[in-house]
Amino acid sequence: MPRLVVVSNRVADPRKPAAGGLAVALGDALRESGGMWFGWSGIAADVRDGASDLPVRTQRHGGVTLATVDICRDDVQAYYFGYSNAVLWPVFHYRLDLADFDAGYADRYRRVNQLFARKLLPLLRPDDVIWVHDYHLIPLASELRALGSGHRIGFFLHIPLPPPLILAAIPEHDWLMRALFAYDLVGFQSQADLTHFESYMLQEARVDVAGDGLFLGFGRRLRAGAFPIGLDVREFQALAEGRDARETLATLREQYSRRQLLVGVDRLDYSKGLPQRLRAFRSLLLRYPENRNRATLIQVAAPSREGVGAYADLKAELEGLCGAINGDYGELDWMPVRYIHRTVARRRIPALYRASRVALVTPLRDGMNLVAKEFLAVQDPADPGVLVLSRFAGAAEQLRDAVLVNPYATQQTADAIQFALQMPLDERRRRHERLMAEIRQHDVHWWRRQFLDTLTQAG
Question: Which residue among 245, 288, 337, 444 is least packed, with the fewest CB closer than 10 Å?
Fold first, then answer.
């Protein structure tokens, strides 16, 4: 079988449970094919001007080769913090007001992609299948093709793709989207993202849309499709049975025996809708006073890019909102909001989900959001909690039996939370059964097989 080569901004050891969903998803395929995972080491090297002689370091772990390269400090600032996260991330999440278009990041973003291509190409075998991941590496295939690569190459975008008019705000949008035609297959999280891609190609690029996900332009044939990423359900359920999770669950049930818990688990990011969530919770306490001294929201907001001004402002806003809610409604023996601004160990997270009556997954925009699926996976089928889910999360296309909300509508979201808290047991069971059938059928292994099978057949 062809060897699978995965390329992403960062590399993870698939053997480690803490490596994250992508490593879990790709681990089996990498091991089966004796595959390689290539990416940035995470090191900002103190060398002048992105020296191209930076070595590739390789390690062999469990039949998988991990290959990493350093990036010079100036290029890290422009490629990672600059173009990737100060231009593409906000625009792809519909936040044009937060994008920094004028800093001249694009040239170094392209240069790092050229560096990746130069370092990767000598490591490749003629029949390798290459799978490139996410917005950091959109032009990688075009740089590989320029060096003579004829490999089959696929690309998967883990974040949303915005509508054409928003995408067109990026000064280099035409170059970026044309670069996608160097791939054989481009995958998106949702049908909405695929529709935006097709609209862009018709309105802006004026390429031929042949139907059934086939696009003809720039001398290339490109196939595109929606491949919603899933969860390794059994792996996450096994995590819930571990000692740390069981001990944490026992502690939570003892400490909150008189309360109904609501939970939110997010990175501290403006795309997650955390201020809107807290305002909705405040509205819940105001409009439905029976929840006072009874409902507690545990909100985990793991640190994320804290050196960026927008994130520091968000952190200050959240702390102010939590303090105001607790100051206005708290009692000596009850705080409405327990705000945790640090990363909670993954092995303990299932317990937090299992102890909660309601999960609030209410991003303003998200590619998928696997927290929604994690919450569902570890519920007690006999007495399951309820998922309140933003209609703007990619997961909402699949999880139609969740309580879907518009997070911008504060009072309606508060009403939906109250509905979830009051939902009868029979309805909770019916919804959970249908939601579990969905996440089991379209799990992370289905996602991997579907994409790679389509890539193999593309052309």
Answer: 288
- Regarding the domain delimited by 4-230+444-457, which CATH topology (the fold level of the hierarchy) does it fall under? Rossmann fold (3.40.50)
Mention the CATH class of domain 233-441: alpha beta
Q: Per residue of the chain (459 residues), what is the pLDDT tens digit?
A: 799 999 999 997 766 655 556 677 788 889 888 999 999 999 999 876 655 678 999 999 888 999 999 999 999 999 999 999 999 999 999 999 999 998 889 999 999 999 999 999 999 999 999 999 999 999 999 999 999 999 999 999 999 999 999 999 999 999 999 999 999 999 999 999 999 999 999 999 999 999 889 999 999 999 999 999 999 999 999 999 999 999 999 999 999 999 999 999 999 999 999 999 999 999 999 999 999 999 999 999 999 876 666 788 999 999 999 999 999 999 999 999 999 999 999 999 999 999 999 999 999 999 999 999 999 999 999 999 999 999 999 999 999 999 999 999 999 999 999 999 999 999 999 999 999 999 999 999 999 999 999 999 986
Active-site pick, 13, 61, 100, 158: 158
Q: Which two tokens stand for residue 266?
A: 């997010």
Residue 68 DSSP SS3: strand
4-230+444-457 and 233-441 in the same fold: yes
Q: Residues 338-345: contacts with CB within 8 Å, 24+ apart? A: 338/296, 338/297, 338/298, 338/299, 339/299, 339/301, 340/298, 340/299, 340/300, 340/301, 341/268, 341/301, 341/302, 341/303, 341/315, 342/302, 342/303, 343/302, 343/303, 344/265, 344/300, 344/302, 345/244
Determine which one of 366, 401, 442, 443 is catalytic: 366
Find out whether 63 and 28 touch, Cβ atoms under 8 Å: no
Q: Where are the domains of the chain?
A: 4-230+444-457, 233-441
Active site residue 173: no
- 366 catalytically annotated: yes
Extract the tokens encoding 369. 């959001």
